[in-house]
Amino acid sequence: MKVLLATKNLGKVKELQDLLSGEDIEVISLEDIEDWEEVEETGVTFAENAAMKARIAAERTGLISLADDSGLEVDALDGAPGVYSARYAGESKDDDKNNDKLLNELEGVPEAQRTGRFRCALVIATPAGEEFLTEGAVEGRILNERRGKEGFGYDPLFYLPDFGRTMAQLNLCQKNKISHRAQALLNAIPVLKEIAQRHTTRKENF
């Protein structure tokens, strides 16, 4: 069975393919789809954006499709930047500017109140109109200065108490084992396997 991961990030594709190792499921990406038109993210939640992208991908390609949306939620900012994480400081999607704005917004906020989480919503959509939502989250705290050079986005400010490090101080292998996206992908595996089983059963009945 072939499934489409609605992204052009080949690292994400490899991550999903590795998790599906041993299964008769081939993962392709938007790089494999000719003349793909980007889907504008207009949802007010991660789940809405993920569902929109997965649904459109399934409709356009006729393939079982997966899409995710993720970002940072800060409790002291009532969940901001949330779905606007990538463009928090403007449409330029500049990591440094986004981090600077976050630090400014949290100026004077006590350490105990600087809690937050990275959250990911992932939706599986089928051409028949079925949709399945899985999620993942990593709890942490927002520092008042950057630490670490790995990762991207808000990783240098996101401190993981259990590790004593920021996301940007973890290597890629460590991060992929605990990340919000990895959790959402892991939660999606049983759903994909169940869909694949149904797909196989239908073919055998013909």
TrEMBL record:
<feature type="binding site">
    <location>
        <position position="70"/>
    </location>
    <ligand>
        <name>substrate</name>
    </ligand>
</feature>
<dbReference type="GO" id="GO:0036222">
    <property type="term" value="F:XTP diphosphatase activity"/>
</dbReference>
<feature type="binding site">
    <location>
        <begin position="7"/>
        <end position="12"/>
    </location>
    <ligand>
        <name>substrate</name>
    </ligand>
</feature>
<dbReference type="GO" id="GO:0035870">
    <property type="term" value="F:dITP diphosphatase activity"/>
</dbReference>
<dbReference type="GO" id="GO:0009146">
    <property type="term" value="P:purine nucleoside triphosphate catabolic process"/>
</dbReference>
<protein>
    <recommendedName>
        <fullName>dITP/XTP pyrophosphatase</fullName>
        <ecNumber>3.6.1.66</ecNumber>
    </recommendedName>
</protein>
<dbReference type="GO" id="GO:0036220">
    <property type="term" value="F:ITP diphosphatase activity"/>
</dbReference>
<comment type="subunit">
    <text>Homodimer.</text>
</comment>
<keyword id="KW-0546">Nucleotide metabolism</keyword>
<feature type="binding site">
    <location>
        <begin position="180"/>
        <end position="181"/>
    </location>
    <ligand>
        <name>substrate</name>
    </ligand>
</feature>
<keyword id="KW-0479">Metal-binding</keyword>
<dbReference type="GO" id="GO:0046872">
    <property type="term" value="F:metal ion binding"/>
</dbReference>
<comment type="function">
    <text>Pyrophosphatase that catalyzes the hydrolysis of nucleoside triphosphates to their monophosphate derivatives, with a high preference for the non-canonical purine nucleotides XTP (xanthosine triphosphate), dITP (deoxyinosine triphosphate) and ITP. Seems to function as a house-cleaning enzyme that removes non-canonical purine nucleotides from the nucleotide pool, thus preventing their incorporation into DNA/RNA and avoiding chromosomal lesions.</text>
</comment>
<dbReference type="GO" id="GO:0009117">
    <property type="term" value="P:nucleotide metabolic process"/>
</dbReference>
<dbReference type="GO" id="GO:0000166">
    <property type="term" value="F:nucleotide binding"/>
</dbReference>
<comment type="similarity">
    <text>Belongs to the HAM1 NTPase family.</text>
</comment>
<dbReference type="InterPro" id="IPR002637">
    <property type="entry name" value="RdgB/HAM1"/>
</dbReference>
<feature type="binding site">
    <location>
        <begin position="152"/>
        <end position="155"/>
    </location>
    <ligand>
        <name>substrate</name>
    </ligand>
</feature>
<keyword id="KW-0547">Nucleotide-binding</keyword>
<keyword id="KW-0460">Magnesium</keyword>
<feature type="active site" description="Proton acceptor">
    <location>
        <position position="69"/>
    </location>
</feature>
<keyword id="KW-0378">Hydrolase</keyword>
<feature type="binding site">
    <location>
        <position position="69"/>
    </location>
    <ligand>
        <name>Mg(2+)</name>
    </ligand>
</feature>
<dbReference type="GO" id="GO:0017111">
    <property type="term" value="F:ribonucleoside triphosphate phosphatase activity"/>
</dbReference>
<dbReference type="GO" id="GO:0005829">
    <property type="term" value="C:cytosol"/>
</dbReference>
<dbReference type="InterPro" id="IPR020922">
    <property type="entry name" value="dITP/XTP_pyrophosphatase"/>
</dbReference>
<dbReference type="Pfam" id="PF01725">
    <property type="entry name" value="Ham1p_like"/>
</dbReference>
<dbReference type="InterPro" id="IPR029001">
    <property type="entry name" value="ITPase-like_fam"/>
</dbReference>
<feature type="binding site">
    <location>
        <position position="40"/>
    </location>
    <ligand>
        <name>Mg(2+)</name>
    </ligand>
</feature>
<feature type="binding site">
    <location>
        <position position="175"/>
    </location>
    <ligand>
        <name>substrate</name>
    </ligand>
</feature>
